[in-house]
Amino acid sequence: MVSTAKKEISTHSESLLKQKHPKTHSHYRFQDFFAFDRQMGTIDDWNQSRNIFTSEDFIIGLVEGLEEEVGPASSVIMYTIGCQWGLQDSEFFQKWFSAEYSQNIRQSNLMFLLETWWWPFTAQGWGRWEVDMSDRKHGCIFINLFDSAVARTLGDVGKPVCHLYAGLFAGFFGSLVKKPLSCIELQCYSMGETYCKFLLGNPDKIDAAAFWLNEGANARDIQNRLQHGEILR
């Protein structure tokens, strides 16, 4: 599923979905989240964002085609695309959140805010997530992603493949806290794991995690090192 945000959230032309369910907020049912206009050939979602349905073949073609063209740099390109997506989606999210809940995001409970941001992604088929804030005092956040659209499609290829998600998290959270953040995938469904795990934090911590990962550390090892304040020298 690919979605593109319309430039403005109009308060005067509320979506038909919201007119049909005026007292409802978060939706996960496919039939309630998407509005199909057969005459115009368009698919808009709950937040009036234009959507495009794609097949798994599209994802395979995108990832493998990029790898064929630029080799290992494809992961950097996918991450960069994800970052830009996260930045733009953050701006769009802040508009529709304020319109739907009549409050600024700074006034909202953080976990409620994050779940509200992610539920449209779940409805669009990007997978479910779980945000672990227990290491926030160490300057990092762990995110578990279940049923990644990219990893599920590519299968067990023996390496992390969810660079798009890592960029998305870095871009969105960085925009939210107004400072540069980086993100790395520590384990992936495409490596034979049962779910994908990401580490989000300042660039120095993510560089350290990338180094330890290349040295053979696993997600648990890296979490322990960060909790004990280890840094690269």
Structure description:
With 233 residues, the protein is an alpha+beta fold. It contains 9 helices and 8 strands. It has helices at 16-20, 30-33, 56-70, 74-101, 110-124, 149-154, 163-177, 203-214, 219-227; strands at residues 2-4, 34-37, 42-45, 50-52, 128-132, 140-146, 182-187, 196-201. A 4-stranded antiparallel β-sheet has the order 1-4-3-2. Strands 5-6-8-7 form a 4-stranded antiparallel β-sheet, sandwiched between helices. Strand 2 (34-37) and strand 3 (42-45) form a beta hairpin. Helix 4 crosses helix 7 (163-177). The protein is globular. The N and C termini lie far apart (42 Å).
Q: Tell me the span between the first and last alpha carbons.
A: 42 Å
Uncertain segments: 7-13
* Arrangement of strands in the largest sheet: 1-4-3-2
Helix count? 9
Mean pLDDT: 89
Percent of residues in helical segments?
40-55%
Fraction of residues in β-strands: 15-25%
**Largest sheet, described in full?**
4 strands, antiparallel
CA-based shape = globular
Let me know the number of strands.
8
* Cα-atom radius of gyration: 18 Å
SSE pattern, N- to C-terminal: EHHEEEHHHEEHHEEHH
| SSE class | alpha+beta
Provide key terms for this protein.
233 residues; alpha+beta; four-stranded antiparallel sheet; 9 helices; 8 strands; 47% helix; globular
Fold topology:
Blueprint lengths: L1 E3 L11 H5 L9 H4 E4 L4 E4 L4 E3 L3 H15 L3 H28 L8 H15 L3 E5 L7 E7 L2 H6 L8 H15 L4 E6 L8 E6 L1 H12 L4 H9 L6
Antiparallel strand pairs: 1-4, 2-3, 3-4, 5-6, 6-8, 7-8
Helix pairs in contact: 4-7
